[in-house]
């Protein structure tokens, strides 16, 4: 589940399906990155969450069916989820987790190319945050990590979603361990070679990890992801349900290579300022191996030119999803920005098809395509 509405107004009313926006952002400290020793498994290899452009066995998704969570918006959100699933299924298998009472509708809307199962119940559609984080060891081994999902700090019902990670691991038949922190997959980006990036606002936060220091969180994150260094951004506290997930603004492309979605020049709200700070932090950061970061700008759209007028809308090109042979991204109706984003993604991934989808209904919930998908990498 991604984070923000990076652009139109400096303050918001109701955002992320009814979460009350706080009065302002809270900044905590400056940039900090600490290198920690990596842990090896018993056989001497290291289980590590790979960078996302590796080959996948399948993509995991979840089917929303709650009118309480999506009042007046559910049918449109379901249509967007089905569109995303069908598009990904052109390139790799997709498994959709649906509640028994809505599985038939999910099958009807997703079509025969998507596998719908009803044995893993869900509360909502944000599989990036609720699903397992899969790791590989480079020797054919696969396991999973659970991040102890707690509804983004108990902001939403999550009794079913809290068990999605372990149930998917059981379905796949791989062991699962639980990280020594509470978090979400959208809160942590990995380069697959020892470096992570995250916002303090999502993790160094008493609604997830009360009493834990930044150093303790670094250790827990690195242990879970098979990494040794964390690049921190301050983020934005309290203005959306996720407390500013990193994956709608900054993404790793490869070890030593990152992308940051930049706001238009006239945007100066908390999220626009946060994006500019993330770019500045990455520009002076190094990887766990000491390599300087190569940081690419991805220009975001003009919120005055997009189709949606919803105050909680997320217009993030950076929240794209990599599947086998394709990049699944969004388009928002700002034709110049949409085409520029396509060109940038085509340049970054010249051997992949670029699919741009209208997911405006999902965007009113403050999320995007990366937020509703979770990859299972080939071991």
TrEMBL record:
<keyword id="KW-0378">Hydrolase</keyword>
<dbReference type="Pfam" id="PF04371">
    <property type="entry name" value="PAD_porph"/>
</dbReference>
<dbReference type="InterPro" id="IPR019546">
    <property type="entry name" value="TAT_signal_bac_arc"/>
</dbReference>
<protein>
    <submittedName>
        <fullName>Porphyromonas-type peptidyl-arginine deiminase</fullName>
    </submittedName>
</protein>
<dbReference type="GO" id="GO:0004668">
    <property type="term" value="F:protein-arginine deiminase activity"/>
</dbReference>
<dbReference type="GO" id="GO:0009446">
    <property type="term" value="P:putrescine biosynthetic process"/>
</dbReference>
<dbReference type="InterPro" id="IPR007466">
    <property type="entry name" value="Peptidyl-Arg-deiminase_porph"/>
</dbReference>
<dbReference type="GO" id="GO:0047632">
    <property type="term" value="F:agmatine deiminase activity"/>
</dbReference>
<dbReference type="InterPro" id="IPR006311">
    <property type="entry name" value="TAT_signal"/>
</dbReference>
């Amino acid at each position: 589940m991604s984070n923000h509405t990076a652009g139109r107004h400096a303050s918001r009313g109701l955002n992320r399906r009814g979460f009350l926006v706080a009065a302002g952002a809270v900044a905590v400290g400056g940039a900090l990155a600490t290198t920690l020793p990596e842990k090896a498994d018993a056989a001497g290899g290291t289980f590590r969450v790979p960078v996302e452009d590796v080959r996948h066995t399948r993509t995991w998704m979840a089917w929303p069916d709650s009118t309480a969570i999506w009042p007046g918006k559910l049918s449109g959100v379901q249509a967007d989820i089905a569109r995303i699933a069908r598009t990904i299924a052109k390139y790799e298998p997709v498994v959709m987790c649906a509640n028994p009472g809505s599985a038939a509708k999910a099958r009807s809307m997703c079509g025969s190319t998507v596998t719908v199962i009803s044995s893993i119940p869900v509360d909502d559609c944000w599989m990036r945050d609720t699903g397992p984080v899969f790791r590989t060891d480079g020797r054919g081994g696969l396991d999973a990590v659970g991040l102890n999902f707690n509804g983004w700090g108990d902001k939403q019902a999550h009794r079913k979603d809290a068990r999605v990670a372990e149930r998917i691991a059981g379905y796949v038949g791989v062991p699962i361990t639980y990280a020594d922190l509470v978090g979400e997959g959208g809160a942590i980006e990995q380069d697959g070679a020892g470096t992570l990036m995250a916002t303090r606002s999502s993790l160094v936060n008493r609604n997830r990890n009360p009493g834990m220091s930044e150093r303790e969180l670094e250790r827990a994150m690195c242990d879970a992801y098979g990494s040794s260094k964390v690049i921190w951004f301050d983020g934005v506290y309290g203005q959306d349900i996720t407390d500013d997930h990193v994956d709608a603004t900054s993404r790793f492309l490869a070890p030593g290579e990152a992308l940051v979605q930049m706001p238009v020049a006239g945007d100066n709200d908390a999220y626009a300022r946060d994006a500019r700070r993330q770019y500045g932090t990455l520009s002076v950061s190094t990887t766990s191996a000491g390599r300087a970061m190569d940081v690419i700008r991805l220009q975001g759209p003009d919120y005055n030119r997009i189709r949606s007028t919803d105050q909680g809308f997320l217009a993030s090109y950076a929240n794209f999803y990599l599947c086998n042979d394709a990049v699944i991204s969004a388009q928002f109706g700002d034709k110049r920005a949409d085409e520029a984003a396509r060109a940038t993604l085509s340049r970054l991934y010249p051997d992949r098809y670029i699919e741009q989808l209208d997911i405006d209904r999902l965007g009113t919930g403050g999320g995007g395509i990366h937020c509703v998908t979770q990859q299972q990498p080939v071991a």
